Amino acid sequence: MTYPPEPDEKPGEYEQARDHARAAVGPYTAEEQVAAENDLSLLHADAFALRLRTDAAEDPPTLEEWGAHYRRKAPLLVRLSLADPLRYEALAREALARWRLAERREIAALAGAGLADEVEGWLRQQGA
Asked: How confident is the model at residue 3 (pLDDT cuts 50, 70, 90)?
């Protein structure tokens, strides 16, 4: 893989995630917002490091590493978008789509390696 997976957002996926975040935890408080934006800057640095590793081709990131990155980034951006949709909604939509694609590729890689039991366990763990 040369860069993170290309997104293919499902209709309504962002809206469902946004509504769930609003109902479950609500928007960040002012203090939480600052902390979340700091976390987001660390995640941007993490993505940059993953891309550098991809470009160097010496130790390219695995599907699991990209998946872990987007599993942290997508929910953070969705919740940030509750308070500032103009700034974060597009980023949240892209991160959600990339997260879902990374998950599908992880599942396909496990299934292709003949690890059906691990795939079933992973799906149960994800609540699918």
From this structure: very low
